[in-house]
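pinned: reference chain
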Amino acid sequence: MRRFAQPSNQNRAATPSLLLLRTETEISNYNGTSGETTTNLCSICRVNFEENDTLRTINHCNHCYHINCIDRWFEENITCPVCRYDIRNTETPVNPGEETISIERVTIPLNNAQTPLTIQQPQQPPQPLQTTQLIPTYQQPAN
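pinned: its structure tokens
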């Protein structure tokens, strides 16, 4: 009898891509000024920043870390270690005075045709396709 085992994806960590790190974080050298960071301490290694330390700052929350500390963190995580902000949330905030328009249905007439083409936006965003790789496993017949 053949049985197929499915690999467990539960233990896989979501990690940021290099492009995401480039767009959602900023690298700088610490020069000791208090306006540069919200704290003078890396909350991962708990060591104070020193002159010319290379720091990575998460743009959304402005939390700063030694670049080696946060890059090691991002090997297994995708959130800020302090506030848990998910750096994949790259939506730009809407300005308070700005109006937004949502188009849910568009009707386009085609060359004076009697029946126009109608495009409807789905109610929910499409979910990404999930694939499962089946790995065969074999059982020894009982003797």
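why pinned: Helices lie at 18-24, 67-74. The two ends are 14 Å apart (CA to CA).
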